[in-house]
Amino acid sequence: MQTVRIALGARTYPIHVGSGLLVRADLVAPVLPHRRAAIVTNDTVAPLYLEPLAAALGAARIESVRIVVPDGEDHKSWQTLNTVFDALVRERCDRQTAIVALGGGVIGDLAGFAAATYQRGVPFVQVPTTLLAQVDSSVGGKTAINHPRGKNMIGAFHQPVLVLADTETLATLPERELRAGLAEVIKHGAIRDAAFFDWLEANVDRLRARDPESLAHAVRRSVEIKAEVVALDERETGLRAVLNFGHTFGHAIETGLGFGTWLHGEAVAAGMAMAADLSARLGLLDSRSADRLRRLLQQAGLPIAGPRLHADRYVELMAIDKKVQAGRARFILLERLGSAVIRSDVPPEALRGTLADATAG
Amino acid sequence: MQTVRIALGARTYPIHVGSGLLVRADLVAPVLPHRRAAIVTNDTVAPLYLEPLAAALGAARIESVRIVVPDGEDHKSWQTLNTVFDALVRERCDRQTAIVALGGGVIGDLAGFAAATYQRGVPFVQVPTTLLAQVDSSVGGKTAINHPRGKNMIGAFHQPVLVLADTETLATLPERELRAGLAEVIKHGAIRDAAFFDWLEANVDRLRARDPESLAHAVRRSVEIKAEVVALDERETGLRAVLNFGHTFGHAIETGLGFGTWLHGEAVAAGMAMAADLSARLGLLDSRSADRLRRLLQQAGLPIAGPRLHADRYVELMAIDKKVQAGRARFILLERLGSAVIRSDVPPEALRGTLADATAG
Q1: ipTM for this model
Q2: pTM of the model
Q3: Is A326 on the interface with B (CB under 8 A)?
Q4: From A129's CA, which of A222, A232, B183, B318 has a CA 20 to 30 Å away?
Q5: What is the CATH number of the domain that holds A123?
C-alpha cells in the first residue's frame, strides 16, 4: 500500500493506493468515530463490492446503511440525488453519519454532493472502483450533479476524510472504462510531468493489460500530480484550471451528444487532441509533440477527434461551460509536453480551424 | 447607517443597517467587480422592491437578471430551487455573476443555497426585507432548502459578501411577520444579553409600532449578538447551538403542522416558552425568569404554547431534527435570562411534562 497525503491544513486527508484495500476497515474506523455510515453505490458495483465492504465495516463495528442507485451518467441528476436524500432521512442518518461513495466518478460526484449538502455537510469517504475515479475524483474535493443544459452545473467543494483506491477493483472494470481512465492519466503527464508522459509511452500496453504494478504507479503518480496542483489552488481560482486540459472541448462533446453517449474520458481524450491541435495552430506547441500526444491516446484506445457537430454548436456548447469568464472562453493549451498554459485570447478563426480539422464524422 | 462587520478572516463581510439602503448601489458596486447580478425574489416582494433595486444597480452599471419565484415556505423546495437553476443557466450566468437575495428568510435560504451550489459557488449578496431575515438569516452563512420530512435538511454554509438591511422595507411587512421577527430578537436577548432583554421589555411596544430608531437598535444588537456567537464557532460544532434556543421544539411544531401553518418565528416563540418550561422543570431556571420570557413573548403578540400534538408525535418529530447526536436529543435551555446552556441529559419524564403542560389545543 502506498499513501499520498493531500495537504489541506485541518482538512488534510490520506489517499491509500494498493491491492485489497476495500476490506481494510482498520483504515476506515479511525475517521468514523461515530461508527455509522451510509454506503452509496450503483446497481452495477453493488453485486461486486457492496457486501465485502459492508461486511468488513460490520466486523469493525461500523453500522452501515446501503443506498443503491441506478448506474449511469443519466443518474447524476437531482432526481437521483433526491432518492439518496430520501433514504438518508428515512434511515435517520444524522450529521455524524459518514457517506461512503463506492463506485466510479458518477457515484463519487453524486454521493459527494449529497455529503456536502445533507444537513449542511457530513463526513465523506471515497472508495473509487474505476481508474477514472481513482486518478481524478479522489483529489480536489469537487462534487456535483448535472443540469440538463450543462455538466456539473450544480455542486460544491467538499473534501473527503479518506480515500481507499483499491487497484483490485480495476480487474472487473470494462475495457472501455479502463481506456477512458487512461485519458486522465495521460492528461496528468501532458500538463505537468514530461517524464511521466515518457513513462506512459513506454508502459501503455502494460496498463491496458492491467499489470498491477503499472496500474498502481499510474494511479499514485496521477494522484500526486493532481494533488500538487490542487494544493496550490484549492478553489480553482487560477493554476488549477490546467486540470481542465481537454475539458472545454470534452464537455461540449458530452453535452452535444447527450450525457453518456461518450464516456467522460473519451470526450476528454478527443478534447485533448483538439486542444493540442489548437495549441499547434497558435504556434504554442510544436507539431511533433502534438503528434506524440495523439499517438499515445490512440495506443490507449482512445478517440483523437471530436464528433462532427456543427462548429456553431460547439461554440454554443462551450459558451455555457463553467470555464467562461465575463463572456470570453478560456482555453487550456500546451506549450510543450509536461507544461500547460491558460489562454483567453484564442482568435475565433483558429478555433474554427480546429473545429473543422480535429473532428470526424 | 450603522455597520456590523462579521469577522471571518478572508471572508469578512459587512452588514449595513439603516434607512434607504435598498437603493445604495454604491455599497454594492465594490463587491461586484464583474457588474453582473441575478436578483432572486418572490412575487410578494417583487412588486414592492425589485424595480427600485434593479434600477439602482442599473444606474451603477450593474446588469441584473430577475428571477421571481412564488412566495411561501412551501417553495423552499428542490422544485423551486431547480427553477432558479434553470433561469441561471438560461441567462448564462457564470461564476462571477453574484446572486442577490431580495426578500425574507425563505428567499435568503433558497437563493443562498443556489449561490452555494451553482457552478460550485458564486458570490452572494443579501437584501433582507423582513425583520426575521434581517436579524437572523444575515449572519451565519447558513443556507438550505426543506425536505418533505425535515426542515433545512439540505443545505450548505455559504457566507455573503455583503448584507444590506434596509429598515424602511419593514414598513410594508405584515403585522404577523413583524411579530414573528421579534421572536428571534427576543431569543438573542434571552440566550446572551440580559441588558438587551431588559431593553426589549421596555421597548416592545415601540417595536410593534415600528418606531424606526427602536427597530434599527433591535436589528443591530441582534446581529451583533449572533455575530459574536457565530464568529466563535462558524461551523456549529458547539457554542453556536445556543442560537437554536426554541428551535428543537419549534421545528417539530413547523413539521408537525406542515410547513407554513405557523410562521417560523411563531414556532420558535412557542418553542422558547416550552424550553423555558423545561428549564424550570429541571431546576435550571427560576420560575420568575420563565414568566418574564413568556410575558415578553405575549407582549410581542407571540404564542407561548405549542399546539397540542400527541407527545409521541413531538418526540418523533424531534428525533429527525438535525440537532440529534448519536440518537440522543440535545436541548438548548436557559440557566438565567441572558445565558443558555446545552444539555443532552434531559429525562424523558421532564420532556413529557413540558409536552403536556406547555402546549394548548
Answers
A1: 0.83
A2: 0.85
A3: yes
A4: A232
A5: 3.40.50.1970
